[in-house]
Design brief:
The protein has about 400 residues and is an alpha/beta fold. The chain is about 40% helix and about 20% strand. It has 14 helices and 15 strands. The strands form 3 sheets. A 7-stranded mixed β-sheet has the order 4-10-9-8-7-5-6. It has a 4-stranded mixed β-sheet with strand order 1-2-3-13. The structure holds pyridoxal-5'-phosphate. Pyridoxal-5'-phosphate binds near residues 101, 105, 130, 215 and 241. The site of pyridoxal-5'-phosphate has 15 residues, from helix 5.
Amino acid sequence: MTFEETFLADTFWKRPVTLVKGKGAKVWDSNGKEYIDCSCGYGVALLGHCHPKVVEAINRQASRLLTCHGSFYNDAREECLSKLHRIRPDGTDRVFLSSTGAEAVETAIKLSRKFTRKKGFISTVNAYHGKTTGALSLTWASKYREPFMPLLDGVKFAPYGKSEKVRGLIDADTAAVFVEPVQGEGGINVPPRDYLRELREICDDKGVLLVFDEVQSGFGRTGRIWAHQHFGVNPDILCASKALGGGLPIAATFAREDIMASLKRGEHSNTFGGNPIACAACAAAVDALLEDGLVENAREQGEFLMRGLEGIGSSMIREVRGLGLMIGVDMRFETGGIILRCLDGGVIVLEAGKTVLRLLPPLVLCRDDAKAVVETVSNAVLEEERKKKGAR
Ligand SMILES: Cc1ncc(COP(=O)(O)O)c(C=O)c1O
């Protein structure tokens, strides 16, 4: 028995593997077995594990200053902000720094309420915005929500991809509409082409803020820096995290100047937001993303993977869908067995809900690794199909 089993809170479903090392698209376990990592720590290691620019920046900063509270200016934070400014979503001019995706969402919730002086929110069916109490209020799955009721008042859920339903739910007390430009945890759902533009029009029409949660879809994952750029609309507020720090915890809530100005000093702050090590890692991650042509690779390898997975030809696959390197394989049964078979075959994949196999490979995935992923997933699906048919 390990301390992870006996001492750590038992709140994660564990895979039977201890990971000890990572490099690029690969990770290794404590027995020396190699895996192609299509989970990337649930989307974090988007630049690949231990990207040399990120590691170097962390090492350099680690011997200079480990912590610096937001009440002091800091050179690493300044550098990080100058990089984030380069990739800030169009229409946003200010950013608040924190450490996790849920914290970025909490910031957006408080900002929306403070700016509009309204309390209600519209979220979407199958949305995932995190598990802190505020973020959980906007998260769809009842298995996550029910044990912790009551959550925030005034949250309504509209079917994802149906803008007119959102219009119908907005009332005089609605502060903001929260939406993932591509749903991640909810099943890798890419919305209809006009959905975000229609939401923008509805929100403008009704005087409601539009918040994009790009914690999972952002930072090059879908073949653009931000997934919403595929759809040609701007948010009022955008939440980012996961890949932003190249592996270290950092989150950013971008907002329009007038919206961010509604938060007065002391009304929203934290201890670790803008931490120098996280900031150094983030600055290097932005450099790597922009200089290494990685965003283009997301499109290329994403198309290759999608075509390969579509070619599996199993009657158990309902649909293969996605954008860039955010890919889902919707199965006719639960995916637990396939995930374990892939692990056995040396490929780490994720679930998204019960029936969707989720692939979030890194932008540094090469063609040979992409081929190996398709082959391993294909074998796992076909073996599982044979097992299911045999059991009937
Ligand atoms: C779209 C989205 N928003 C928010 C979160 C919450 O992020 P964190 O787990 O860092 O709190 C996630 C995490 O998966 C996410 O996918």
